[in-house]
């Protein structure tokens, strides 16, 4: 891990976009440099040249550079769009619960019409982390340039959605799953929880990049376990789940990460992190916990499976518009059907 180098770079004077920092190796005292693309094969996952080449166009560092070009001067106010799980379901039976054909594309069109400064995708961009899946994702991103899109890794973006899996394709295309975008005085932190863990090394990295006194947002895929049971109440009754026949219990028992969850909780409170946005559960929910607002936004176009009553019950496709400025954060939830509501 390059925690010390990342820490040093993150303290450089801020002017608009001051930097992008990932978990790759760096030279001490210098701005982080992207590590070389993963080798042609890591385990059983092949990384073809066309995908590793795509990193210079659609990778997270390339998006930071695009953001810097689009916004060369500091801003007092700016907007982030947040969109969660987008993959349409690997199997035909899962698509029975689809929010509608092309839901993700329609949500992204809505985002584009609002012209935010940047977008954070909270993972599960592809149904399975295969070459074909990533080629489709790269093709989509190449066809929609303009707004910088930062891509957080989800469990489906690994070589297998559940169990032991490889992240070589994600890393080849997007870079490290742990990264920071320093923009207008805000630290926007992408965090890899795709295999439902937060390692000791990641926790150490977080302690260095979450600079005390800075305004901070964290974007990840899997929620921490201390939120289980806190996201169930539907803050938008008009979208509350209505019981249907069938259901989907697979993955419910592993819908949260447990390793270092308490340490993560303590760190978020200690550094006064203002928001943590996450997906994984295909629903919407909000929890206020120890001074941090935790927002579940897993409805980016993925199937809206009926969930047990022990899980969130706000099931609808949506994205979130997050307006940031000197005062409070203003969040508006935009549903696929055009309805919207502000978060208090």
List keywords for this structure.
alpha/beta, Purple Acid Phosphatase, chain A, domain 2, 344 residues, disordered N terminus, 7-stranded mixed sheet, 6-stranded mixed sheet
Structure description:
By secondary structure, the protein is an alpha/beta fold. It has a single domain, classed as Metallo-dependent phosphatases (Purple Acid Phosphatase, chain A, domain 2, 4-Layer Sandwich). It is 23% helix and 20% strand. The protein contains eight helices and 15 strands. The protein has helices spanning 3-10, 49-58, 60-70, 103-114, 131-142, 168-174, 200-209, 261-270, and strands at residues 17-22, 41-42, 45-46, 78-83, 118-121, 149-151, 179-183, 186-190, 215-219, 275-278, 284-289, 292-297, 318-324, 330-335, 340-342. The strands form three sheets. A seven-stranded mixed sheet has the order 1-7-8-9-10-12-11, with helices on both faces. α5 (131-142) links the parallel β5 (118-121) and β6. α1 (3-10) runs parallel beside α7. It is globular and about 45 Å long.
Write the layout of secondary structure elements.
Blueprint (H helix, E strand, L loop, with lengths): L2 H8 L6 E6 L18 E2 L2 E2 L2 H10 L1 H11 L7 E6 L19 H12 L3 E4 L9 H12 L6 E3 L16 H7 L4 E5 L2 E5 L9 H10 L5 E5 L41 H10 L4 E4 L5 E6 L2 E6 L20 E7 L5 E6 L4 E3 L2
Number of domains: 1
What does the main sheet amount to? 7 strands, mixed
* CATH hierarchy: architecture: 4-Layer Sandwich
Instruction: Provide the succession of SSEs.
Output: HEEEHHEHEHEHEEHEHEEEEEE
> So what's the overall shape?
globular
- In the CATH hierarchy, what is the superfamily? Metallo-dependent phosphatases
Low-confidence stretches: 1-16, 25-43, 243-250
- CATH class division: Alpha Beta
Chain-averaged pLDDT: 86
Could you tell me the radius of gyration in angstroms? 19 Å
Total DSSP helices: 8
CATH fold topology: Purple Acid Phosphatase, chain A, domain 2
Strand coverage percent: 15-25%
Oligomer: single chain
How far apart the termini lie comes to 39 Å
Could you tell me the number of beta strands? 15
Strands ordered across the widest β-sheet: 1-7-8-9-10-12-11
Helix content: 10-25%
Strand-pairing-aware structural class: alpha/beta
């Amino acid at each position: 891990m390059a925690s010390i180098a990342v820490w040093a770079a993150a303290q450089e004077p801020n002017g608009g976009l001051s930097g992008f920092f990932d978990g790759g190796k760096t030279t001490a005292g210098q701005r982080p440099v992207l590590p070389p693309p993963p080798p042609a094969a890591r385990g059983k996952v092949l990384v073809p040249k066309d995908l590793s080449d795509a990193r210079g166009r659609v990778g997270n560092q390339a998006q930071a550079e695009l953001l810097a070009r689009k916004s060369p001067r500091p801003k007092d106010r700016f907007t982030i769009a947040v969109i969660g799980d987008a993959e349409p379901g690997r199997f035909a039976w899962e698509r029975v619960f689809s929010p509608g054909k092309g839901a993700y594309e329609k949500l992204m069109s809505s985002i584009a019409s609002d012209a935010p400064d940047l977008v954070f995708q909270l993972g599960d961009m592809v149904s399975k982390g295969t070459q074909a899946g990533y080629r489709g994702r790269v093709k989509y991103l190449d066809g929609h340039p303009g707004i910088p899109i930062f891509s957080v890794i989800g469990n489906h973006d690994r070589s297998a959605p559940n169990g032991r899996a490889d992240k070589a394709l994600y890393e080849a295309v997007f870079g490290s799953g742990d990264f920071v975008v320093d923009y207008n005085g805000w630290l926007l932190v992408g965090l890899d929880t795709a295999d439902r863990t937060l390692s000791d090394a990641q926790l150490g990295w977080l302690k260095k990049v979450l600079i005390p006194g800075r305004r901070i947002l964290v974007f990840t895929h899997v929620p921490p376990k201390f939120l289980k049971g806190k996201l169930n109440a539907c803050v938008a009754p008009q979208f509350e789940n209505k019981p249907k026949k069938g259901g989907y219990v697979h993955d419910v028992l592993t819908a949260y990460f447990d390793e270092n969850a308490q340490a993560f909780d303590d760190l978020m409170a200690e550094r006064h992190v203002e928001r943590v946005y996450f997906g994984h559960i295909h629903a919407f929910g909000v929890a206020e916990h120890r001074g941090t607002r935790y927002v579940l936004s897993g409805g980016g176009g993925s199937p809206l499976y009926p969930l047990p009553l022990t899980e969130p019950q706000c099931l609808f496709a949506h994205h979130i518009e997050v307006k940031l400025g000197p005062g409070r954060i203003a969040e508006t939830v935009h549903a696929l059907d055009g309805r919207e509501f502000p978060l208090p």
